[in-house]
Structures are given as C-alpha cells and as structure tokens.
Amino acid sequence: MKRFVFATAIASMLALSVPARAHDAYDDSESYPLRVVAYVLHPVGWAIEWLVARPIHFLVSQPPIEPISGHVPHETPFGDYHPYRHADDHTEY
What we know:
The structure is a single chain. The chain has three helices and no strands. It is mainly alpha-helical. The protein has a domain at 30-75.
C-alpha cells in the first residue's frame, strides 16, 4: 500500500509540474552577496514604508496638524505643486 501511495504521489507531482522560468535573463550580478541580501531586505523596507511611514505622513500632513508637526508641502521638481483640494474648495490655481 505504501508503494502505491508513493507512486501515486510521484506521478501526481510529475503530471502537475511545470517548467520554472524567470521573467528576465539571469546574469552574475544577481548572485552578488549584497544583491541576495537586498532580495530579503527589500520587502521588509517596502512593508515598513507602506505600514509605518505613509500612515505617519498622512497624519502629520493634515492641514490642522501641519503647524504642530512642522510638515511643509512638497513641490515637484518642476515647481508646479498643487495641493489636494477638498471637494468644497473651488479655488483657482
């Protein structure tokens, strides 16, 4: 009975397997030790940004809290910053 179960499991794995393919070509720079560490740390940094930094920025950038928190709106590199407007605000820029 064990042999039948084992053979069935192996046959299922072979039948359901698909070839592994990467989305782009591999080169030696992807095996550099710091790149391998970055593969692990990047998702951690991304999660911290989205779960900690962005919510904090959202809170301190609220107009009533800006003077207390010291937040200053950021301009684009082209100098055409337009802050988000409330739906009731019909100010022309």
